[in-house]
């Protein structure tokens, strides 16, 4: 497979987390989004949670009105969020599982068990011109279920792989990596667009960018943490460079294989 361009989506949720910790208007997620685009982001992701713990409704309205790039709305498949998406018409919507007690999204959607509930939500959003993806684990049954209910795209939850690498659990990391590679191949073969996210840092983003099936990475928390030390613009530029190195390695590998064919 050739190496298509890979997009970088920046999640700005935790800029809003910091703002909400004290109240008021600073730091402004919209300002962060604009800076991210200047630094190389292709799109912006924002998760409007049921409890509004970080991103708020007015943030979504301002992002849609003022951003010069696509907005990816992360949302639960609830009637409230579906109505908001249909009203605001973001470029894309990533449907994620959501629990009030979780610190962050802890796992992927169980599409196989929830297909009857998810299918009409996906259909209505797609009919409205919104590009829908499903946030799922790297599991065959979930990918096949996503295909059956006609989801245009999936985002593979790669957090378990990232955590295993960070904690030095090599055998576990290797197994997770194999699952990610197999899942990406399967999903692309079924006609799904493939994204990845959760827990990525510079090193893991460079590695996963060598998978030709994956066309978008969505990254947030790590970059906001790095921004404390190097600034938001620099952290995003470093991430963009890491992804570009991964894609270049993929192209060089493809050329070597072609030369020896």
From TrEMBL:
<keyword id="KW-0664">Pyridoxine biosynthesis</keyword>
<feature type="active site" description="Proton acceptor">
    <location>
        <position position="74"/>
    </location>
</feature>
<dbReference type="GO" id="GO:0033856">
    <property type="term" value="F:pyridoxine 5'-phosphate synthase activity"/>
</dbReference>
<keyword id="KW-0963">Cytoplasm</keyword>
<feature type="active site" description="Proton donor">
    <location>
        <position position="198"/>
    </location>
</feature>
<comment type="similarity">
    <text>Belongs to the PNP synthase family.</text>
</comment>
<feature type="active site" description="Proton acceptor">
    <location>
        <position position="47"/>
    </location>
</feature>
<dbReference type="Pfam" id="PF03740">
    <property type="entry name" value="PdxJ"/>
</dbReference>
<comment type="pathway">
    <text>Cofactor biosynthesis; pyridoxine 5'-phosphate biosynthesis; pyridoxine 5'-phosphate from D-erythrose 4-phosphate: step 5/5.</text>
</comment>
<dbReference type="InterPro" id="IPR036130">
    <property type="entry name" value="Pyridoxine-5'_phos_synth"/>
</dbReference>
<dbReference type="InterPro" id="IPR004569">
    <property type="entry name" value="PyrdxlP_synth_PdxJ"/>
</dbReference>
<dbReference type="GO" id="GO:0005829">
    <property type="term" value="C:cytosol"/>
</dbReference>
<feature type="site" description="Transition state stabilizer">
    <location>
        <position position="155"/>
    </location>
</feature>
<feature type="binding site">
    <location>
        <position position="22"/>
    </location>
    <ligand>
        <name>3-amino-2-oxopropyl phosphate</name>
    </ligand>
</feature>
<feature type="binding site">
    <location>
        <position position="11"/>
    </location>
    <ligand>
        <name>3-amino-2-oxopropyl phosphate</name>
    </ligand>
</feature>
<dbReference type="InterPro" id="IPR013785">
    <property type="entry name" value="Aldolase_TIM"/>
</dbReference>
<feature type="binding site">
    <location>
        <begin position="220"/>
        <end position="221"/>
    </location>
    <ligand>
        <name>3-amino-2-oxopropyl phosphate</name>
    </ligand>
</feature>
<feature type="binding site">
    <location>
        <position position="54"/>
    </location>
    <ligand>
        <name>1-deoxy-D-xylulose 5-phosphate</name>
    </ligand>
</feature>
<feature type="binding site">
    <location>
        <position position="49"/>
    </location>
    <ligand>
        <name>1-deoxy-D-xylulose 5-phosphate</name>
    </ligand>
</feature>
<feature type="binding site">
    <location>
        <begin position="13"/>
        <end position="14"/>
    </location>
    <ligand>
        <name>1-deoxy-D-xylulose 5-phosphate</name>
    </ligand>
</feature>
<keyword id="KW-0808">Transferase</keyword>
<protein>
    <recommendedName>
        <fullName>Pyridoxine 5'-phosphate synthase</fullName>
        <ecNumber>2.6.99.2</ecNumber>
    </recommendedName>
</protein>
<feature type="binding site">
    <location>
        <position position="104"/>
    </location>
    <ligand>
        <name>1-deoxy-D-xylulose 5-phosphate</name>
    </ligand>
</feature>
<comment type="function">
    <text>Catalyzes the complicated ring closure reaction between the two acyclic compounds 1-deoxy-D-xylulose-5-phosphate (DXP) and 3-amino-2-oxopropyl phosphate (1-amino-acetone-3-phosphate or AAP) to form pyridoxine 5'-phosphate (PNP) and inorganic phosphate.</text>
</comment>
<dbReference type="GO" id="GO:0008615">
    <property type="term" value="P:pyridoxine biosynthetic process"/>
</dbReference>
<feature type="binding site">
    <location>
        <position position="199"/>
    </location>
    <ligand>
        <name>3-amino-2-oxopropyl phosphate</name>
    </ligand>
</feature>
<comment type="subunit">
    <text>Homooctamer; tetramer of dimers.</text>
</comment>
